[in-house]
Structures are given as structure tokens and as C-alpha cells.
Amino acid sequence: MKNIMLSLTAVMCLVGFSSLSFAEDMGKMKDDMKGEMKGEMKDMKGEMKGDMKEMKGDMKEMKGEMKGEMKGKTKAKHDEMKGDMKDMKGDMKGEMKGAMGK
User: What secondary structure does DSSP assign to the chain, as a single string?
Assistant: First the structure.
């Protein structure tokens, strides 16, 4: 009976120590995986920042092109209106001179 109890106690101790060892191994694995994940996250973050900078550059380029187009269109309209105003001014001067001369 004593032998059985002693054997059971020895087995229980071994199971306890092995579970502690297992828990320690699991803790190490967790730390390793955490480190790997952090590294991957930094890489992904760097890639995303690069993509964002590229997109910002594209947007600025498009904005510049659109701004140039709009400037050209508004300048052309402005010049056209200026010409029309000169014509109208000339016509009005002619009318006024004609009216004053009579």
C-alpha cells in the first residue's frame, strides 16, 4: 500500500513538473510569436506609408494639372471678355462722337 501511494505521489510530482515546463515553453512561444508579429506589423506599416506618400504625390500632380487647365480656360475667357469690352467701348465712343457732332 505504501509503495502504491509513493508511486502515485511520484507520478503526481512528475505530472506537475512537466505541466510547469509545458507552461514555460508556451510562454516562450508566445513571446517569440509576439516579436514576429511586431516585426511584420512594422513592415506592413512601412509599406502602407510608402503607398500613402505615392498616392499623395499622384494627387498633387493631378491637382497641378487641373489647376493649369483651369487657369488656361479662365485666362482665355478673360481675354475674350476684354476684347468684347474694347469693341463695345469703341462702338460707344463712335456713337458718342456721332451724337456730339450733330
Answer: -HHHHHHHHHHHHHHHHHHHHHHHHHHHHHHHHHHHHHHHHHHHHHHHHHHHHHHHHHHHHHHHHHHHHHHHHHHHHHHHHHHHHHHHHHHHHHHHHHHHH-
